[in-house]
């Protein structure tokens, strides 16, 4: 979620100084104005101070009264996502998981701490619905344009306690402002039959990386560890669960080969442009048990589109 915000009221430093030190301003007037005018100015300054005190700061978006837990009248889906309509919408269409949406939102942890808000930024956020946390992908599909809904998102549908992310159950107030239809992504590739373990005909390197060529490429040159590569890929855990795929997103991905997991850095150097290869990457060459990342041996089908 991209969040930008501004708050201009009473942000002029000289204005703030004047409000917080009215006696200095009054002293400057005393040589030039009558006692009656001084009294008038004093009243004006006092009123300005009261008004300034009554204006909420940029961070003052109060947490909902039911932030600690979903109330009894909230609806709950099979996944554990709870939600409640705060304002009925005017549209009839719901976004699909691959559509782009434009929203205003604010988010809190269950202790009432706000961690993010497009409302504070003064600018709504737009993003593909399948590129955010699962609770948003599911929850926004329940909504229509103009609707405002409160979501209680359990940990496994939020950031799954990944480092440097808001932890635990998260609560969001979301207003759906617009839907931009996108073409449906391709069907996800089938789970490989040999996903559980590398077959006997797989190549193995000294590091423990195993691979098998699925489609031969063209040319004889290979990328090196400092190359930038463009690929299509899909990834599974050894129980057959897909956890990521550029194919289902319908868009290739480019990255520096030295900036990915070691199994990819090593494996892509075995390939030539146009080649498609299946990798069985042991955990020590994958995410090494990092919190929130896929664990154990990982299986990837990778097609090397190009490199430079």
Q: Secondary-structure map with pairings?
A:
Elements: H1 13-20, H2 22-30, H3 35-54, E1 75-76, E2 82-87, E3 100-109, E4 114-117, H4 118-121, E5 125-128, H5 134-140, E6 148-153, E7 170-180, E8 203-204, E9 210-215, E10 228-237, E11 242-245, H6 246-249, E12 253-256, H7 262-268, E13 276-281, E14 298-307
Antiparallel strand pairs: 1-2, 2-6, 3-4, 3-5, 3-7, 6-7, 8-9, 9-13, 10-11, 10-12, 10-14, 13-14
Helix pairs in contact: 2-3
Overview of this structure, please?
The protein has helices spanning 13-20, 22-30, 35-54, 118-121, 134-140, 246-249, 262-268; strands at 75-76, 82-87, 100-109, 114-117, 125-128, 148-153, 170-180, 203-204, 210-215, 228-237, 242-245, 253-256, 276-281, 298-307. The protein is α+β, with helices and mostly antiparallel strands and 308 residues long. The chain folds into three domains: 13-54, no CATH class; 75-180, Chitinase A, domain 3; 203-307, Chitinase A, domain 3.
Keywords:
Chitinase A, domain 3; single chain; 7 helices; alpha+beta; 308 residues; 14 strands; elongated
Summarize it:
This protein is an alpha+beta fold and 308 residues long. It has helices at 13-20, 22-30, 35-54, 118-121, 134-140, 246-249, 262-268; strands at 75-76, 82-87, 100-109, 114-117, 125-128, 148-153, 170-180, 203-204, 210-215, 228-237, 242-245, 253-256, 276-281, 298-307. A hairpin with a 5-residue loop joins strand 1 (75-76) and strand 2 (82-87).
């Amino acid at each position: 979620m991209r969040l930008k915000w501004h708050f201009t009221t009473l942000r002029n430093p000289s204005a703030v100084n004047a409000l917080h030190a009215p006696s200095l301003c009054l002293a400057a007037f005393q040589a030039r104005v009558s006692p009656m005018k001084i009294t008038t100015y004093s009243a004006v300054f006092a009123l300005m101070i009261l008004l300034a005190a009554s204006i909420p700061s940029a961070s003052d978006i109060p947490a909902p009264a039911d932030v600690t837990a979903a109330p009894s009248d909230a609806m709950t889906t099979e996944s554990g996502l709870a939600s409640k309509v705060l304002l009925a919408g005017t549209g009839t269409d719901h976004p699909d998981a691959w559509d782009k949406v434009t929203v205003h939102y604010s988010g809190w942890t269950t202790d009432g701490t706000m961690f993010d808000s497009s409302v504070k930024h003064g600018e709504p956020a737009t993003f593909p619905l399948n590129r955010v946390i699962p609770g948003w992908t599911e929850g926004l599909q329940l909504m229509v344009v103009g609707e405002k809904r409160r979501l209680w998102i359990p940990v496994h549908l939020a950031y799954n306690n990944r480092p440097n992310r808001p932890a635990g159950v998260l609560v969001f107030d979301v207003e759906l402002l617009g839907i931009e239809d996108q073409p449906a992504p391709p069907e996800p590739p089938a789970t490989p039959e040999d996903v559980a373990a590398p077959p006997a005909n797989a190549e193995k390197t000294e590091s423990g990386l195993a691979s098998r060529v699925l489609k031969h490429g063209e040319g004889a040159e290979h990328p090196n560890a400092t190359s930038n590569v463009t690929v299509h890929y899909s990834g599974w855990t050894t129980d057959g669960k897909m956890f990521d795929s550029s194919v289902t997103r319908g868009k290739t991905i480019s990255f520096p080969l030295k900036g990915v997991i070691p199994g990819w850095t090593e494996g892509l150097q075995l390939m030539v442009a146009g080649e498609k290869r299946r990798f069985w990457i042991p955990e020590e060459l994958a995410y090494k048990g990092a919190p929130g990342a896929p664990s154990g041996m990982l299986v990837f089908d990778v097609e090397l589109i190009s490199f430079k």
